[in-house]
Amino acid sequence: MLVSRKRYGRRVDDEQTTEGGGREFWRVLEELRARLGNGVYPLGSSLPAQRALADELGVSRDTVQRALRALQSEGWIESRQGSGSRVVKSPIHLGKPQQEAPRVRAALGTFIARAFAQPVVRLDVFTLTSESLDAHIRLQAERIRLGGVTPERIELRMLLPATSLELPYPRAKHPASEGEAEPEGASEAEAGQLDQLNGRLQDRLHAITRRHAISLRSALRDLKTEGLVPSVQVEVRHVPLTPAFKLYLRPGAEALFGPYEVVERSILMDDETEVDAIDVLGLGSTLTRHVNDEGDPDSSGSVFVESMCAWFDSCWNLLARPA
User: Which end of the chain is more exposed for a tag (fewer CB within 10 A), N or C?
Assistant: First the structure.
């Protein structure tokens, strides 16, 4: 039942989050995002019925509905009454069928898979939240458990934006940007409301970042605890930089680079408030692959990999602080 509409945020449901204070909602949302990312639900395909998803994932149908609304607000799926949910944007190919995608585009999943096929897995990452990386790391952890790959050592260094940094996104859209007239005498109150909402959006981003950093760290360290990988080293540092791009490096071998595109989208908050915001969607970033050519140190791929490795090391050593 609709209960209210606010200037910056609108209440879409009066039912409060249940099932572990929202943990089940986040689990389902992250599982569906991972399936979109690894191609289980390809572009143009239909997701299973809500009841089937609820039974498969062991949650209520309401939790599945909330997760689907979040995916729709992020632009990945389109839901229609009586027609179910259909994938309308691919995290890898951004709306184009796979066979039409330019060769310069790359997929994070295959990059991570190549890394984990090596005896020594070395990854350097600069990203906003590590949400995409977390899903793929967990997939590789399962491959190790199933004996598909057997690395002897895993080394991961990850740079995340400092929590003290005031990021330009996500930010609530100001009514003036929508052509709405400002009520006389309301500017101070509106400004205070906007600041409060922006604070909530930033807190939500930090919570997502913490959750995924903890998740991937645990996924990798569990491999050592279980005796599957003899040596695991995971280090996360915070850097006072706003990510305008995401960077994945296999030092000396290859790099994936993808700019964050700023978009307007609706963000579903934990309390079911829906906020019109300016944000970036890391899951949909277009990634380009650059390969080090050992036979030609002056090739564009070699120069790019070398320069990005030097940039990462400089930030890691001179700007970053332990998380």
Answer: N
